[in-house]
Amino acid sequence: QVQLVESGGGLVQAGGSLRLSCAASGRTFSTYAMGWFRQAPGKERECIAAISRSGVSTYYADSVKGRFTISRDNAKNTVYLQMNSLKPEDTAVYYCAAAQRVNPIAVVTTPEGMDYWGKGTLVTVSS
Fold first, then answer.
1. Are the C-beta atoms of residues 65 and 103 closer than 8 Å to each other?
2. Backbone CA torsion sign across 8, 100, 73, 36
């Protein structure tokens, strides 16, 4: 089992940047595919970025492609989400999630495919 703790959220002006971090407990972080999801009020939770166990494969939702970058440091048990050129529509609670028993180069992009979740961190982008 793994515990996930997100950090780095906050209030930022449109056009600004934030970097989210997700620290995982345990010694098996490299065996999990990781993802960042977000949920805005009244909307479904959506995957915005995902990364494979090895880091060789990544996925981005069209809405964040070119602005957000997902990365992981398996030595530090941490996955990151660098968010640039933030827009008011990026306002949401951002969740880190982990999927186990996944092919080393596969990404998981659905909430149903994830096994563990953090509690989320709020990102608010003001116009």
1. no
2. negative
What residue type is assigned to position 17 of the chain?
S
Distance CA(55)–CA(15), nearest Å, equals: 27
- For 38, other C-beta atoms within 10 Å of its C-beta total 23
β-strands 121-126, 116-117 pairing: unpaired
Determine the distance from the C-alpha atom of residue 54 to the mean position of all C-alpha atoms in its chain, rounded to a whole number. Answer: 16
Q: In this predicted model, what pLDDT tens digit does every residue of 25-82 receive, in sequence order?
A: 977 999 999 999 999 999 999 999 999 999 999 999 999 999 999 999 999 999 999 9
**pLDDT the model gives residue 26:** 79
Q: What single letter denotes the amino acid at residue 93?
A: V
